[in-house]
Design a protein that fits this description.
3 domains, globular, Rossmann fold, 559 residues
Length: 559
């Protein structure tokens, strides 16, 4: 199956009338093979619930075999399209309606089978677990569930799969569409929740699978179970290398661990509950800071993003916290009724609104220290009023140093990589016209050098701009400083005064742009303030970029 098919499902869902034909074309008919395999496994007559029915093609086939089918989808347009294609046979037992995984329209132990195709990849890990529990309740004893989804293949094909998925994710971002989620840890959930894998069929090297699950342990289980991830190492060389990976790759990549409940030490029902993100770097820092203190660590599904960025980007807020509490059943593990959340999550978690959004939410919210290293002191003292070191994110030199490395890496990966490669290829091409250009290839090195220097200056000298919260003003200041330093240092590389003057326009832009980009690392302002500045910044930035590029191009002739 072409991987673009599943990733583009959300785009296709915007066009329900043509969804089936386009999806079949994209999958090269794999979806039809999936349907046929499912139809072979279902022996009529059965009472079936299909979740995520789309345009109803599979539901229609199952009903025409003599099954009693209830098909639901949360997309009203899809349901309307399915109703238009309702079979003409009068004896057909088929009903379409709006529904979701959170509230399946089925009584407990009322369904023989539950079927869902290509929907799992639209669910986050906690949602997948919630879906399994709700399905377990709806199934009869020994009932079956058949699921088709996109999975990660093994071996060499995993590399090829990830490359293709990366390409399609980029296409989705250009289309302003949210990507689907990899069904990464799904098989871990089955046994703890109460299912057993009884059959499986694979296509395209295992990237597309259909699995048949059986509801098990009916005699012992009155309710479905809850999944708890295995402990993850946070000490040793491998953990330290994971930290370096996050720092030296610009923290661009989402590096998630399984969301859920972890343990520090040997916690019991009286132990505190520390809430954090499911970003690997954050998890390691929190667990190391606890130093074996008996505590529960609840990692919400922040999509593998650190607390500060996740809270600013709607990935660490009330919704994710409520979801984590419901999905993990932590309320029944501990008698503590307080969740200690990171201070830096305050931009996403609004404690006064929790009860209005989830009336049965069983916990109170307490904002902990801003840095993980102060958690032990906070737990011991429980100060009524936190000291400044616990509530203020002071941007110290060591923090600025790490931020400078991370931010510079981010700029090279996301902003300057392709232009730098293009410039290098251009200069190499010019050497075929005039061999003198080969001596000017070091221009690329100089460009990289000044990007690094500009960001180092911003990080080191950042405190001198404390007098203003406006990053446009900070950018102008660092632009001037960079130009002054550039002029002095460049004289030793290139004695051409016209080139130095012309290039200064470009390097002023580099510092100006980098300062605004650096704002997310500083915690020196709020997202709202940055958003207010951004319309003006974008106009100034574009003007400076055009002037800088034109001046730099003219300056080439003076090298």
């Amino acid at each position: 199956m072409n991987k673009i098919a599943v990733v583009y499902m959300r785009k296709l869902e915007l066009e329900p009338e043509t969804y089936e034909s386009k999806f079949t074309a994209l999958t090269k008919g794999t979806n039809i093979k999936v349907h046929n395999w499912i139809l072979e496994r279902i022996k009529a007559p059965q009472i079936i619930l299909e979740v995520g029915c789309g345009t109803g093609s599979l539901a229609k086939k199952m009903a025409l075999k003599g099954n009693d089918v209830l098909a639901i989808d949360k997309n009203l347009q899809m349901v309307n399209t399915a109703i238009k294609n309702y079979p003409s046979e009068e004896s057909t037992k088929l009903l379409y309606q709006i529904g979701s995984i959170n509230d399946l329209p089925a009584e407990d132990s009322s369904k023989d089978s539950i079927v869902s195709t290509f929907m799992l990849s639209e669910l986050r890990p906690f949602e997948q677990q919630e879906f399994l529990r709700n399905a377990w309740k709806a199934l009869k004893p020994n009932g079956r569930m058949i699921l088709a989804a996109e999975f990660i293949p093994s071996g060499f094909w995993k590399i090829w799969f990830n490359i293709k998925r990366w390409r399609y994710r980029k296409k989705l971002r250009r289309l302003r569409l949210q990507s689907t989620f990899l069904v990464k840890w799904f098989f871990n959930y089955l046994e703890p929740i109460g299912f057993k894998l009884v059959a499986e069929k694979k296509w395209n090297h295992g990237s597309i699978r259909v699995i048949e699950l059986k509801k098990n342990n009916v005699e012992k289980l009155k309710e479905p179970g809850y999944y708890r991830p295995n402990p993850k190492k946070f000490k040793g060389l491998r953990a330290q290398l994971s930290i370096y990976r996050c720092i030296f790759t610009g923290q661009v990549d989402h590096v998630p661990i399984e969301p859920g409940i972890y343990q520090s030490g040997n916690p019991d029902e009286n132990s505190p509950i520390i809430v954090t993100a499911n970003y690997l770097y954050t998890y390691i820092k929190v667990m190391r800071a606890l130093k074996g203190i008996d505590a529960w660590v609840l990692c919400v599904d922040s999509n593998g993003i650190n607390v500060w960025c996740a809270a600013r980007g709607n990935n660490f807020g009330n919704k994710q916290l409520i979801e984590a509490v419901e999905a993990t059943d932590i309320a029944n593990i501990t008698i503590k009724k307080t969740l200690i959340v990171p201070q830096l999550s305050a931009g996403g978690i609004t404690a006064p609104l929790i009860k209005s959004e989830a009336p049965d939410f069983p916990f109170n919210i307490l904002y902990g220290p801003v840095w993980a290293k102060y958690i032990p002191q906070f737990l011991e003292e429980r100060p009524a009023r936190k000291p400044d070191k616990m509530k203020l994110a002071n941007f110290t030199l060591s923090h600025r140093f790490r931020a400078e490395i991370t931010h510079t890496t981010f700029l090279f990966r996301k902003i300057f990589l392709l232009p730098t490669i293009a410039l290098l290829l251009l200069l190499i091409g010019l050497t075929f016209i005039d061999t003198l250009w080969i001596r000017k290839l070091w221009i690329v090195g100089e460009l990289c050098f000044w990007i690094i220097i500009a960001n180092a200056l911003i990080a080191i000298l950042f405190p001198i701009t404390k007098f203003t919260r406006k990053f446009i003003t900070k950018g102008i200041i660092f632009g001037i400083i960079t130009v002054i330093m550039f002029g002095g240092v460049s004289w030793f590389f290139n004695y051409s005064l016209p080139n130095i003057i012309l290039s200064s326009f470009f390097y002023f832009w580099v510092a100006f742009f980098s300062t605004m980009s650096f704002s997310g690392y500083t915690m020196a302002t709020s997202p709202r303030e940055i958003q207010d500045e951004y319309p003006i910044f974008s106009k100034i930035n574009m003007i400076l970029l055009i002037i800088g590029l034109v001046a730099k191009a003219i300056g080439f002739i003076f090298y």
